Amino acid sequence: MRVVRATPRDYASHMAVLRRNYPVSNAVAHALSLPEARKACDEELQGGLPQDQETSGQHFHVLHQGDRKVGHLWLMEGPSKTLFLADIHILSQFRSRGFGAKAIAWTDRRA
User: Fold this and answer.
1) SS3 sequence, the chain?
2) Which tens digits make up the pLDDT trace of 80-108?
3) Are 76 and 83 in contact (CB under 8 A)?
4) Cα(83)–Cα(58) distance, rounded to whole angstroms?
5) What are the tens digits of pLDDT across the range 26-85?
6) What is the CATH number of the domain that holds 31?
7) What sign for the dihedral angle of Cα 90, 91, 95, 98?
8) Domain count within the chain
9) pTM for the full predicted model
10) Domain range holding 7?
């Protein structure tokens, strides 16, 4: 598996997935209606990513197996030289094949 820096198109694709999935889990976790959760997630993403993928300390990657995209990875720099896994998304047709574990191992080596 290869991990490459996301292009603007890859970033847009990742954000579309995130905007679709994140509000659902956020609504459940915080007892919000789905419209409230969508609004909160949009505000959080806009506030946390003011320059989109060029926001300092934010690193967006695409996971590839051969010539096929298998997922997205978002890493955030934290205080004291820490690195956080902000989001990982493996495309449904590639799940349960070890790509998530490989992405975590790659992140661990990078950290």
Assistant:
1) CEEEECCHHHHHHHHHHHHHHHHHHHHHHHCCCHHHHHHHHHHHHHHHCCCHHHCCCEEEEEEEECCEEEEEEEEEEEHHHEEEEEEEEECHHHCCCCHHHHHHHHHHHHC
2) 888 999 999 999 999 999 999 999 999 99
3) yes
4) 10
5) 999 999 999 999 999 999 999 999 999 999 999 999 999 999 999 999 999 989 888 999
6) 3.40.630.30
7) negative
8) 1
9) 0.89
10) 2-110
